[in-house]
Structure formats: C-alpha cells, structure tokens
Design a protein that fits this description.
This protein is an alpha/beta fold and about 325 residues long. It folds into two domains: about 120 residues, Rossmann fold (3-Layer(aba) Sandwich); about 170 residues, Dihydrodipicolinate Reductase, domain 2 (2-Layer Sandwich). Helix content is about 35%, strand content about 30%. The protein is built from nine helices and 15 strands. β4, α4 and β5 form a beta-alpha-beta unit.
Length: about 325
C-alpha cells in the first residue's frame, strides 16, 4: 500500500483526495494546512491525520508520496524538502513560479532517486487524450498553426489573496491559463522557441494581470496563439484548435473532439466523458502508482513542466518590453 500525504487542504486538494481514493494501492495517510481547522475538516471528510505544518508529513514513515497542493510560491520548498526526505512527489501545476525553482525541484528529485510528477491534468483527460491520439496518428499531417483559449470566472469562491499577488505566483495565466498553454504545446508536439505578449487588467483591479494574449513561435516554424482571460461571468471558453497540413482539429473540454476535412466537421466518438476532470485526476494517480510500483516513466516530468513556466516568464518580459523574447531551454 502506498501512503499519500497532502500538503494543502483547499478545493483542489479535496478533488485529489476523491481521485486517489478510487485508485488501488493508494491510501491517504495525512493532510497538512497552516489553518488547523481546515486540516481537521479535510481529514474528517477524506480521512488521514490532520497536521498543522507540512514538515510533519516528512517525518511520517507511513508517507511514501507527498502531493504538493499549496500556494504556488511554496511548491518548490515543499517539493524539495519532500524529495530530500525520500518521498515521491506529485506537485500541482504550475510546477513553480520560476524556471530556476523548477530546475531545483527536478534536481532534488533526481539526487534523491524519487519520482516527480507534475500534475498537468490536461495530459490525462479524455478529450485531450483523444486529440493527442489523432495528431500522433499522422492522418492530419503536422500541426502548423494552433489557437488555444481559456476564459473563465476569475473571482471564484476558492480564490485566495495569494492568487492576486505577483510575489506568490498569482495571476490568471499561471493559475489557470497554463492549462490552455499546456494542451496547445502538447498537441502541437514542439517546444516554444520565442513569445510575444500583451497583458492587462481588463475586468479586475488587482496587482497581477487577469488577461494575457501570447503569440508563440514553435520549433520547426509552427505558430500559435494563446488567450488567457479571468472573466467576471461564469460562462466559460475552454478550447483548442489546430490547423494541420491535411486537415483541422477542434477540441472542446465539454463536447469533445471534431475533425475538419473536405469542407465539413465530423465529431470524434467517445472523445469526452462525464466528470472528465475527476477522471483525469484518477489517471494522474494511476500514473504515479505505476511509476512507483512498476518503474514506468512519469508522463509529465520537470523538463516539460518547466518549459511551460519558462514560456510564461518570457511572456511577462515580452509584455513589459513590447518585443519578442526567446524562451530559454531546460539546462543541460
């Protein structure tokens, strides 16, 4: 049995607790929160021992894996300490607010010989998996242009002060828009080499942007756009489109995948599922289980997740300087 501890007791930590409960060989051992009442309430619903400090999780011999579901700026210190304590790590996206922190996290896991999986859930949900299968089959040819968007309500009930401050890794793009960036880059299957960007606060008076528009130049010459908007309304846009050499692909998280060829769109059967987000989290934990028990590679490692953070860092610089900025590669 693999013992799991969760650092963080918020909304998405609860989603993870539901997901891992559905996966064989996993057991929730403990949960930590700086708010003792939150930890106790979480444990009462999902099980495990409530802790007031995430460091207590690292001293527990029953803990094999630490899920890092803390505010963004704490991802690196918690993940590095967990690795140094010989715990495997599943860390929520974004991996960290900076590329330098991502590199340090990956290095700590490698030095300790533990698994590090970054929870980019788009890689695990049925609509995106179906789209990836179509692209990989090659029937549409190579993607040459992509467009990805996420427009969603920003001030949700689970929004916290750290989401609204630059020093704690706040902002719509790093918090939620990174999902749209991840599936775009993953489906186009090419790293981003350079980015131009514009950003602003269109709907909220806050210290971090709620809207970002990115123009991406990918390896091999493909181009793409990304729109990340923290909106006021609950109506959501969450889709990606690819224009390939021999046809088009349209992905919507709710309705699934459609293929465009010969002047018409054809829906791809079985390309979505009920509760797709929870099912995606279950697949994340299945992947973590397989990595620990069977030695299989993790589907999303430090280099892939760090590349997304590097792209966002470059986009911030591009918006400030009003010019195209090269995206640094993973060191080594």
């Amino acid at each position: 049995m693999i013992g799991v501890a969760i650092a963080g007791a918020g909304h998405f930590a609860a989603m993870h607790a539901r997901a891992l409960a559905a996966v064989p060989d996993l057991r929730l051992v403990a949960v930590a929160s700086g708010d003792p009442a939150s930890a106790a309430a979480f444990a009462a619903v999902h099980g495990g021992r409530p802790c007031e400090d995430w460091r207590q999780l690292l001293d527990d011999a029953a803990v094999d894996v630490v899920l890092v579901a803390t505010p963004h700026h704490l991802h690196a210190p918690v993940a590095i300490a967990a690795a140094q304590a010989s715990k495997h790590v599943l860390v929520e996206k974004p991996m960290a607010p900076s590329l330098a922190e991502c590199v340090a996290m990956a290095a700590a896991a490698e030095a300790a010989g533990v698994r590090l999986l970054v929870a980019h859930v788009m890689r695990f949900v049925r609509p995106c998996l179906s789209a990836r299968e179509i692209v990989a089959a090659g029937t549409l040819g190579r993607p040459l242009f992509g467009r990805s968007a996420m427009t969603k309500r920003w001030m949700e009930p689970n929004r916290r002060a750290w989401h609204l401050a630059p020093e704690t890794g706040g902002g719509m793009l790093l918090t939620a828009g990174i999902h749209a960036l991840d599936r775009l880059v993953w489906l186009m299957d090419a790293p981003v080499e350079a980015v131009a960007a514009m950003s602003g606060n269109l709907f909220h008076d806050q210290a971090v942007p709620d809207a970002d528009l990115l123009l991406l130049r990918l390896a091999g010459g493909a181009l793409a756009t990304l729109a990340s908007v923290g909106y006021r309304d609950t109506t959501m846009i969450n889709d990606t489109e690819l224009a390939c050499e021999g046809g088009s692909l349209r992905l919507d998280l709710e309705t699934g995948v459609a293929i465009g060829q010969g002047g018409r769109w054809t829906a791809l059967p079985n390309s979505t599922e009920p509760d797709w987000l929870l099912r995606g989290l279950e697949r994340e934990w299945q992947a973590m289980r397989a990595a620990i028990l069977d030695g299989t590679p993790v589907p999303v490692g430090g280099a892939e997740a760090g590349a997304l953070v590097a792209c966002i860092e470059a986009a911030r610089a591009a918006a400030a300087q009003r010019r195209e900025i090269a995206v640094p590669g993973w060191p080594g």
